[in-house]
Amino acid sequence: MDMMCLDAKSVTERACRSCGGTGIETFLEFGKTPLADRLLTSSDIGEPEPIFPLRVAFCKDCSLVQITETVNPIILFADSYPYYSSFSPALLKHSRANALDLINRRGLGPESLVIELASNDGYLLKNYVEAGIRVLGIDPADGPAAAAERVGVPTRCAFFTRDVAETLRAQGMRADIIHANNVLAHVADTNGFVAGIARLLKDDGVAVIEAPYVEPLIEHCEFDTIYHEHLCYFSVTALDKLFRRHGLYLNEVKHLSIHGGSLRLYVESRENVGATVKDQLAHEASRGIDAIGYFRDFSSKVDALKRDLSTLLRRLKSQGATIAAYGAAAKGATLINTVGIGRDLVDFVVDRNVYKHNKYMPGQRLPIRSTEALLEVQPDYVLLLAWNFVDEILDQQAEYRARGGKFILPVPTPRII
Ligand code: JHZ
Ligand code: ZN
Asked: InterPro entries from the entry (predicted)?
């Protein structure tokens, strides 16, 4: 990464975030868009919003898919970050199962140390605390970090960097497990972050990392998961190279359905590459995911989806239907701003996260209300922006549906259910 001056709002990268190669080729261009998690308050409404280029590129040297603009992380994460992991019961269940599995598999006890990078509101580490295992959370967002402390998860409010890793190591801390969920793609200094993990891990420790996987993003046209917080869109091919550069080895990989299709990576300082990784590398080579050709027609698929969704919404509206949306998700911001879904089509967005209520979606400025509004208003249709939690949300909204309400799923192709 270019060195970012602290005052700079963003920088445009000219070289690959991982390998530094200069052979990066753009394959998708959204123009300038607002920041996906920067929800507006009523006093912001009269002001213009900062917008930044959103452009996706492929590195011919290491196969990493990445955006070319790095927005200053302080703007993105440190101030009023509205994302609290604990609002999703499915995510809590998924996280608890992961912790219990590792406690078992690695025989963790009171002497062990588990560190989580981007520990948010303590949604994962609290399971280790319950089991009497020492933990440390590190997260730069003050609201979620304070919420973690309240549930008994000691948390340092900071960005994790190589320097932070050195400081913790100097204080005698080495981790048996390092968790890093949905954060590797978010850090501007990709190499510094991975080097920090290498320094903080015990010799026989394991880093257990979750990140959205680029293959389902492309195959299911999940273009809305592209926004400025997500700097990288990983393949196993690109990850394997990234870890090896820092003396770490991707030894095992699992597929997860969460967030539209993610990978769980088991990374250690001892090389012991298992069949799951070898098979995945072979799969990516056979599908061509390690070459630009795989990505070339994505842009036209995205355009077709955007057009179909817009046409569907306009048709329903012209028939007199009322439409709301569900999930003031970051991905929802990309969807409404790239498709152009404003107040003329959607009246409001509902969300369970109380920190998002009475605010407005970036760009299109759709107001955000509590989920109760769906039964109060009973709109004819609800566009599901948080489509990754479709099962959970449909169950929860059984009453709205029983009264005749319908959901619109935007991806992989717009459809009404
Ligand atoms: P959700 C998040 O992105 C945040 P987002 C982050 N950018 C990231 O990297 C990805 O995840 C992976 C609400 N909700 O989690 C909660 C309900 O209201 O899909 C959220 O506001 N009711 C760091 O923001 C939103 O929907 C529910 O029942 O795109 C979902 O957002 C459930 C389950 C969720 O991700
Ligand atoms: Zn590269």
From this structure: Methyltransf_Zn-bd_dom_put, Methyltransf_Zn-bd_dom_put_sf, MeTrfase_14, SAM-dependent_MTases_sf
pLDDT-derived band at 7 (thresholds 50, 70, 90) equals low
Q: What pTM did the predictor assign?
A: 0.95
What element of type H or E holds 316? helix 298-318
Q: Range of 18's domain?
A: 10-67
Tokens of 230: 């997500």
Q: Give me 5's structure tokens.
A: 């001056």
Same domain for 56 and 92: no
Asked whether the predicted pLDDT for residue 110 surpasses 60, the reply is yes
Whether residue 186 is found in the same domain as residue 318: no
Of the residues 255, 271, 287, the one at which a domain ends: 271
In the reported structure, the alpha carbon of residue 5 is separated from the centroid of ligand 1 by a whole-number distance in angstroms of 30
User: 387 in a domain, yes or no?
Assistant: yes
Ligand 1 pocket residues where CB is under 6 Å: 83, 87-88, 182, 229, 259, 327-331, 351-353, 356, 386, 388-389, 392-393, 396
What pLDDT, on the 0 to 100 scale, is given for residue 3? 40
**Each residue of 252-269: pLDDT tens digit?**
999 999 889 999 999 999
CA-nearest residue for atom 10, ligand 1, is 182
Query: Under a CB-based contact definition with an 8 Å cutoff, are residues 83 and 387 in contact?
Result: no
Ligand lying nearest the CA atom of residue 226: 1
Shortest-distance ligand to the CA of residue 17: 2
Q: Indicate whether 130 belongs to any domain.
A: yes
Please tell me the number of Cα atoms within 13 Å of 335 on its side-chain side: 30
Which residue type occupies 18?
S
1 pLDDT exceeds 80?
no
- Please indicate, yes or no, whether residues 227 and 327 belong to a single structural domain of this protein: no
Please report the DSSP string for 33-59 in residue order.
EE-TT-PBPTTTTTSPPPEEEEEEEEE
